[in-house]
């Protein structure tokens, strides 16, 4: 399929590499991450997630759902299914899922002003989770919104929705631990690229409904699950209705 969107950075690297080379790429790209707001207005937010096909764990599904903001109405969605060549190594998951996610993002007819990834931003052992990695590679504003902690510590998080505390690593704030819904486990928010911590949190809060996950990544996850269960035989009209 021909790529629809050509307005991307040339910072994309070769994905067919060794683990040692992957770590070097992370170390180099982490120096290019910008943790300050470098955007004018956000009118379109995309959520991005990845999963693996049932019984075919060597194939990854990447799903991207684009919303209007602040209305959070679905504009369009795209997905890609790609074979995985990079081994499973904690901290290097972008090298397994990144190629499919990049392809899915490029299939969108309209370019997002911001992408919210189900994964880490700078809250990563080398400061380059998937949101930061692809933010730098694609030269886009990105936020990491993860379900689990990868690094850092926190204290005294309240139980009410909207409460958050700093996520700290080596005395430095790398994100926040956010209670997105009362009575559920927190989520971990960190800047990806071209955005600061407080603004990242603000966008996540504005994208919350009654669920644990913000709507962009929640809907992207739903799309992944639909494809995982039904393959490519699903009803696309029904799918759009279900994720809208």
Structure commentary:
There is one protein chain. With 244 residues, this protein is of the alpha+beta class. It has one domain (19-243): archaeoglobus fulgidus dsm 4304 fold (2-Layer Sandwich). Helix content is 28%, strand content 25%. The chain has helices at 19-30, 94-106, 130-138, 197-206, 215-230, 236-243; strands at residues 44-53, 56-68, 74-83, 114-117, 142-146, 164-169, 172-178, 187-193. Strands 3-2-1-4-5-8-7-6 form an eight-stranded mixed sheet, sandwiched between helices. The longest helix has 16 residues, at 215-230. The protein is globular. Mean pLDDT is 91; it is low at 237-244.
Task: Give the SSE layout.
Blueprint: H1 19-30, E1 44-53, E2 56-68, E3 74-83, H2 94-106, E4 114-117, H3 130-138, E5 142-146, E6 164-169, E7 172-178, E8 187-193, H4 197-206, H5 215-230, H6 236-243
Parallel strand pairs: 1-4, 4-5
Antiparallel strand pairs: 1-2, 2-3, 5-8, 6-7, 7-8
Shape: globular
Integer count of domains? 1
- CATH C-level class is Alpha Beta
Structural class: alpha+beta
Portion in helices: 25-40%
Determine the oligomeric state from the structure: single chain
Count every helix, treating DSSP H or I runs of 4 or more residues as helices.
6
Distance between the termini: 25 Å
H/E topology pattern = HEEEHEHEEEEHHH
Short summary:
The protein has 244 residues and is of the alpha+beta class. It has helices at 19-30, 94-106, 130-138, 197-206, 215-230, 236-243, and strands spanning 44-53, 56-68, 74-83, 114-117, 142-146, 164-169, 172-178, 187-193. The protein is globular and about 40 Å long.
């Amino acid at each position: 399929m021909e790529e629809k969107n050509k307005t991307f950075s040339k910072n994309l690297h070769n994905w067919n590499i060794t683990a040692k080379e992957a770590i070097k790429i992370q170390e180099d790209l982490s120096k290019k991450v910008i943790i300050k707001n470098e955007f004018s207005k956000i009118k379109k937010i995309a959520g991005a997630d990845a999963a693996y096909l049932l019984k075919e764990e060597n194939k990854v599904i990447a799903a991207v759902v684009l919303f209007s903001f602040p209305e959070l109405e679905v504009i369009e969605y795209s997905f890609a299914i790609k074979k995985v060549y990079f081994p499973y190594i904690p901290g290097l998951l972008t090298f397994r899922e990144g190629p499919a996610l990049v392809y899915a993002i490029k299939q969108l007819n309209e370019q997002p002003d911001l992408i919210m990834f189900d994964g880490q931003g700078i809250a990563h052992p080398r400061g380059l989770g998937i949101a930061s990695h692809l933010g730098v590679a694609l030269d886009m504003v990105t936020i990491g919104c993860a379900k689990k902690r990868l690094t850092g510590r926190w204290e005294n998080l309240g139980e009410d929705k909207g409460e958050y505390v700093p996520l700290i690593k080596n005395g430095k704030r790398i994100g926040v631990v956010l209670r997105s819904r009362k009575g559920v486990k927190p989520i971990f928010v960190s800047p990806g690229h071209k955005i600061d911590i407080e603004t990242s949190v603000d966008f996540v809060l504005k994208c919350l409904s009654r669920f644990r996950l913000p709507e962009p990544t929640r809907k992207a996850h739903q799309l992944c699950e639909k494809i995982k269960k039904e393959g490519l035989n699903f009803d696309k009209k029904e799918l759009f209705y279900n994720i809208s």
